[in-house]
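Incident log, structure service

09:12 report received: a user says their structure output differs between two submissions of the same chain.
09:20 pulled the input from the user's history:
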Amino acid sequence: MIRTASFAALLLALFCTAANAAEPDTQEQVQSDVSTREIAIESNFTGIEILIFGSIDFSDEQTPAEASYGVITVVRGPTEPVAVTRKHRIGGIWVNGPGKSFATAPGFYAVLSSRPFRSIASDDTLRQLGIGLANVDFGRYTRGHHADDAYRAALVRLRTEEGLFQENDGGVSFIGRSLFRANVTLPVNVPIGHYTADVYLFRDGKLVSKNVSGLYVNKVGFERVIYSLAFQHPFLYGLLAVALAVLAGLTGWYAFRRD
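09:34 re-ran on a clean worker, output below:
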């Protein structure tokens, strides 16, 4: 009798395990992608707009997606060390004064959301995920330090004016019940390298899903040759620049000389 009861309990446990395994995961999942995987920069490049689109799988069918969920899209470009200096006027001449170096400043950063950030997630959550211009990780930055805050604000302001930093709390729009889209503009001075497009899905202030897509910005043609020489072979690039300047001067002298 004891063996029969144990065998029955074992069968019941196996049945419950199989049933749980067969039951689909109904937690919401965000799926996303970008409209292009590679952007080629040529001499006539004037900027480009990319589309980030996606959907929410297993979304709640009872209420509209824009009322139930919050979607935040973050596009990050390659990081680079940046030095910010304060200019001083000495004897009528502006010179660089004390500065601050940031080790990991993104060359491009754009954040868009379906509604204001703070209505989607708490400040602590946004800070942990690095969402928003106020929470971008620049490296070696002391929050609350007056000097660091001033240099950081100056860097954010300058790159915002250049179009390299963007923030739009209404840039993500829903299409239908679970589809969404967002447009991000890459300016003419966008740095080359690998970019990531992170899409965060929130519900009731909690992160429930995340999806990452990537794209690459690269120079092609003659621009690529010049760029490679300037950054990979600077000495050769300098010699060629001097030679071209001398050649241009001799050409101008020969064309406009008086016999």
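09:41 both user submissions now match this output. Likely a transient worker issue. Closing.
09:42 reviewer note: The two ends are 123 Å apart (CA to CA). Confidence is low (pLDDT under 50) at residues 1-5, 7-24.
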